[in-house]
Amino acid sequence: MNLFNKPNYSISRIDKNELTLKDVIAESKDKCDVSLAGIPFDGATFGRPGARYAPKYIREHLLSLNTYSYEFDFDLSKLKILDFGDIKVSNTDFNFTFENIFKASKECMKNSKLSIYIGGDHSITYPLVKAYCENYGKLNLIILDAHHDIREINEPYSSSGTFLRRIIYEENKPSYIFQIGIRDFYNNYYYYKKAKDYGIEILTVDKIRKVGIKKILSMTFDAAKQSDVTYLSIDVDVLDMLYASGTNSPCINGLNSMEFLNIIKEICKIENLKAVDIVELAPLYDLNNYTTKLISYSIAYIIAAKFSNNQ
Ligand SMILES: [Mn+2]
Q1: I need a surface site. Which of 75, 97, 182, 261 has the fewest CB within 10 A?
Q2: Ligand 1 centroid to residue 68 C-alpha, Å
Q3: How many structural domains are present in the chain?
Q4: How far is the CA of 235 from the centre of ligand 1 (A)?
Q5: Is the per-residue pLDDT at 311 higher than 70?
Q6: In this structure, what CATH number is given to the domain that contains residue 273?
């Protein structure tokens, strides 16, 4: 069975001298440097759904970006970037969805050096991390998020605030877990203690600012050295709500766009970084598409940071 739906988007060109990402995206399922896959699932959202529209909105913005980065002196057209399309999901059927994500991600990881998954709500990270643990072994999980997401699992109802607990309950679970960008007043002490008990390394926004990005992220490098693969999961609400209105649960006192990109740049230095997911972008709440634009830019930035030698 084909696990993907073909994406459709319309991007118009105004200048024939401009090379955009759309021009360099390949569609054949060959070996490639970067694979992209959308996961339009928000069936687990508790609150404001709408992350199912993110892959469509992000493609429109991402693929209309130009390919050159001054910062990295690198042109993305040097790479083979493949769009697998959207993984087939059902917003009312968790089992079908998670199974499809699990299987489809194996196709992406097999065919590319770096896979970028565009969610969807945060529940999609559960089948993805499970697939990477199974395929690679020791996994180093780095999460950018305002929240712990380790609520009790209460079947059959589930919210996206449970994804990490699902991951931890698996037999094949990550060896290291970092939560970067955790916020005051949006989490409670009970889950903070639980997160500590689970061995999660918690890096609050305050701590990041006090210690500094480079220094604080050195512990993720040490964990990566002890691991077979590193997986980065980005919840859009790690950004301050002034930069990210387009999300289920916007929170104040988060990262600004420069801090966000600097953290990403550091993490992209990790050699065994093989997967990135970006979740919880809800375009219908997004003021003037600002969040969508920032996230699309950050995807291009991740690719340039990862594949250039100019860090
Ligand atoms: Mn969150």
Answers
A1: 75
A2: 31
A3: 1
A4: 6
A5: no
A6: 3.40.800.10
